[in-house]
Amino acid sequence: MKALRDPIRLIPVLFLAAIAIGTVLLSLPFATVDGVRAPLLTALFTSTSAVAVTGLIVVDTPTYWSGFGQGVILLLFQVGGFGIMTSATLLGLMAGRGFGLRDRMATQVERSRLETHDALTALRLILFITIAVEGIVALILTVRLIASYGEAPGLALWHGVFHSVSAFNNAGFSSYSDSLMGFQNDPLFLGPIMVSIIITALGFPVMQDLRTNGIVWRRWSLHTKITVGGTAALLVLGFLAILAMEWDNPDTLGPMGWGAKILNAAFHSVMPRTAGFNSLNVGAFHDETLMTNFFLMFVGGGSAGTAGGIKVTTFFVLFAIVLSEILGRQDAGLFQRRFGREIERQALAVTVLSATLIFVATTYIASISSLPLDDILFECISAFSTVGLSTGITAALPPGGLLALIVLMFVGRVGTITVATALALGGRELPFRYPQENPIVG
What we know:
Elements: H1 2-5, H2 7-26, H3 40-51, H4 61-64, H5 67-97, H6 119-149, H7 153-168, H8 187-201, H9 204-213, H10 222-246, H11 258-274, H12 287-299, H13 312-327, E1 333-334, E2 337-338, H14 341-368, H15 373-384, H16 399-425
Antiparallel strand pairs: 1-2
Helix pairs in contact: 2-3, 2-5, 2-16, 3-5, 3-16, 5-6, 5-7, 5-16, 6-7, 6-8, 7-8, 8-11, 9-10, 10-11, 10-12, 11-12, 12-15, 13-14, 14-15, 14-16, 15-16
């Protein structure tokens, strides 16, 4: 009962409950195409991947799972995505007010505050954006599949809805066996998916700020400036890096024309940030391209959205701290605003905890399998950052490796939110201070 009164404990409990329900449903005989019960680990892994909106799979979604099973998966990542956005937003509100200490539920984003009575309005806005974006993208994809690929209207509608919901929630699940590789030359199919992913990867606080203040830069909060500016910079960096590194790769961009190369490089600059769709064979990427993906996946997208990773703001807060130290400045900050010490400590804590968990999981999986280390590291970062991209080794992992990825997906989706919020809520002033002594650093 205590967990039900404490949101820090409630959110993980709710996600675990959703995963458990999904596992039971996917374990039913009619959830698979051949009518045989899926192994428990397969059902658990798939359910966790869906609820955590990751997209890693151990079996081929369209050929292994029946219509019922695919419907369950769709429902799980819809619930997981919407639940993540709402819970992250509410926890952010609670963190801003000092949970249980004041009458108002608010969060400080520069000088803007969300009051307690705005919580319902915020949730309504999230619901409206969800329905609107998913509906528009589903319609575009359905029409495209009917008009250009000759799919029957019912089948086209299913594929359109499935990919629209998966894209909006950054889930990365596809109802096609080769993900989106069959649409390499189609900007009218890949484009709407990219736009949907970018919108939701910004996070709800940015959406609300844009709704309130429009596109007037000077009126944006510091959080919005960092998220939008950082997202744009990382997308451009990813695009240029992938385009240059894979330009002559005969297994990826090499055989394509200019237009297709630009389209697929742009598509794959978006995917590592949050969603696991692929229009290229990720397993055929050059090592330097995989390294770029390591970085993009680890950083992730915006806070209080469906994206994973340590988040854009966390990375740029750390970057500003390093820059201020190099320049000998007393305060770290961006856009003529300085950061509070508590924000700096939270960013450092989230990053160190995330990197440590990935290191431990990678080391463990490497110790129980003979798979290449770079592929294992890629898989672990993808799982923790809830990206879902894979070099193709997921199904080859031993049971212990799959369990490690399950833990990564769960903690990566739920843990970073709860840890960051716990840090924000858990500040306690000691009645004394220890004597100061500085060790040698660096």
